[in-house]
Inverse folding.
């Protein structure tokens, strides 16, 4: 791809030079050929020193042939152990008290923009609700039924074979017995419903669609009722990363800045705008808090040489112009 | 006061290079990749090569760890992407274990054993030349005469041997796990023969 020599390639050349210097007694500071070689790459001086040092190190072996070896203790110098960088703050979501009452009518659970909630359900299941989401929970003697109106939620389902746990998202159905999975309704038309399974097995189908039901196991992901035909993809680490929101985090692993901005914008009224289309295509890696688009912008600025301009309504990131 | 090249080389050979395997092992534990470790180590020698004097360095081992740590952190900060594990990597790098291990107290004797093993691990012709040149202190001319070869052959074999030894030094984990490390060190030299 490029012709920059690796450290070990330089080491090899340096070994040749060090052997030559040793054999011929060259003057490192004045030999013109050696000077020229050293000038060619800043790293060569270090490699030559190392190679010469290796010869010098071996010369200590001369003592092996004769006198007893010198014993030397190296003075100790203890470094100050820096405190661990404080971990990112706790859960963004406050735990909402358990709902122990039997409910005949569906219970409505909602989150506002940027809000993430974890709610224990009456049957012992747990639901983590992502930003801007609405769902209805209906607990009946023979069934547990959740209707996802909009947004995204992750369910950890308490085992109860007598009462199937079914999540409905538009025409899509996801049924579980004892398992954990998330369901997300896309914002745009045709985006479909994204199902990610973190434990156990779920059964998915689309109401009115005659195709057979599909089983998706832990680590699997399926997008249903979208423009493209559904396929099950296995990507456990990808799923864990996609569900970082449960801890109030966004985990980026090579997403473009454009995609990253869209993720942050799901949580915040202050929208991130990438002003340069070329910059928007740059890929980024990092772990951020969903409610801190400013830290994301600062990290982008620091690593990609961008500038940030922000006001109450938006955070605009653009290329730094060389003035 | 400016020191001579020979003085600096002797210092690096005696006080820096013997700790290279430990610095590499520590960088590895901190999560650096092999290519990054090579670059960090090379850059450390580069900085030493830029010094007029090494008289101010009281502990070569501590200096090596500190410099390598600084370079590794600079590298992370310069990287175009901020990795998720960077925070922990920088943190791991801050736990510098540059204090002498129990073995280091008897380092002198151990080191000489290591030199012997390095030389013994070389291919036969290289080994003969290294033994005569480095252990018996013969000049290149004397070595050539003794072995009945040209000086050019001695020089070429010396360069070849030095390459192998440099590689062995960077691959060695002698201080990390003394027994296993020694065996590995020898093995890695022979393997390339």
């Amino acid at each position: 791809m490029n012709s920059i020599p690796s450290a070990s390639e330089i080491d090899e050349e340096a070994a040749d030079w060090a052997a030559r210097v040793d054999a011929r007694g060259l003057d490192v500071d004045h030999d013109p050929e050696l000077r020229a070689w050293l000038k060619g790459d800043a790293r060569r001086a270090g490699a030559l020193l190392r190679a010469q040092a290796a010869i010098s190190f071996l010369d200590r072996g001369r003592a092996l042939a004769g006198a007893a070896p010198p014993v030397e203790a190296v003075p100790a110098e203890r470094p100050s152990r820096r405190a661990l960088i404080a971990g990112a703050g706790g859960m963004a979501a406050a735990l909402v008290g358990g709902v122990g009452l039997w409910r005949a009518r569906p219970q409505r659970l909602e989150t506002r923009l940027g809000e993430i909630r974890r709610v224990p359900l009456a049957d012992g299941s747990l639901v983590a609700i992502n930003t801007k989401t609405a769902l209805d929970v209906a607990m009946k003697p023979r069934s547990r039924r959740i209707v996802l109106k909009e947004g995204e939620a992750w369910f950890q389902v308490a085992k109860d074979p007598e009462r199937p746990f079914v999540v409905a998202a538009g025409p899509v159905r996801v049924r579980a017995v004892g398992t954990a999975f998330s369901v997300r309704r896309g914002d745009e038309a045709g985006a479909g419903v994204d199902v990610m399974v973190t434990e156990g097995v779920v059964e998915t189908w689309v109401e009115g669609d005659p195709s057979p039901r599909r089983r998706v196991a832990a680590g699997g992901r399926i997008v249903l009722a979208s423009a493209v035909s559904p396929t099950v993809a296995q990507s456990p680490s990808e799923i864990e990363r996609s569900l970082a929101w449960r801890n109030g985090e966004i985990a980026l692993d090579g997403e473009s800045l454009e995609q990253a901005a869209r993720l942050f914008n799901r949580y915040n009224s202050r929208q991130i705008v990438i002003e340069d289309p070329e910059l928007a295509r740059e890929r980024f890696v990092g772990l951020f808090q969903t409610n801190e688009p400013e830290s994301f912008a600062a990290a982008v600025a620091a690593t990609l040489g961008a500038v940030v301009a922000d006001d109450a309504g938006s955070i605009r990131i653009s290329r730094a112009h060389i003035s | 006061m400016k020191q001579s090249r020979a003085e600096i080389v002797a210092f690096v050979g005696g006080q820096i290079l013997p700790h290279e395997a430990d610095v590499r092992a520590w960088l590895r534990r901190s999560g650096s990749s092999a290519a990054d470790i090579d670059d960090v180590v090379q850059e450390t020698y580069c900085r030493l090569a830029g010094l007029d004097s090494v008289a101010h360095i009281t502990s070569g081992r501590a200096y090596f760890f500190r410099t390598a740590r600084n370079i590794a952190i600079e590298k992370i900060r310069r990287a175009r992407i901020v990795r998720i594990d960077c925070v922990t990597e920088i943190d791991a790098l801050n736990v510098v274990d540059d204090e002498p291990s129990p073995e280091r107290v008897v380092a002198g004797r151990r080191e000489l054993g290591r030199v012997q093993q390095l030389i013994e691990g070389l291919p036969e012709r290289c080994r003969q030349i290294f033994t005569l040149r480095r252990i018996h202190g013969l000049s290149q001319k004397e070595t050539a005469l003794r072995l009945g070869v040209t000086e050019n052959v001695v020089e070429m074999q010396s360069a070849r041997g030095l390459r192998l030894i440099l590689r062995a030094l960077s691959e060695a984990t002698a201080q990390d796990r003394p027994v296993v490390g020694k065996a590995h060190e020898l093995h890695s030299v022979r393997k390339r023969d």
The radius of gyration of chain B is 18 Å. Residues 101-108, 173-193 of chain B have pLDDT under 50 and may be disordered. The first helix of chain B runs from residue 5 to 16. Chain B touches chain A through 76 residues (CB under 8 Å).
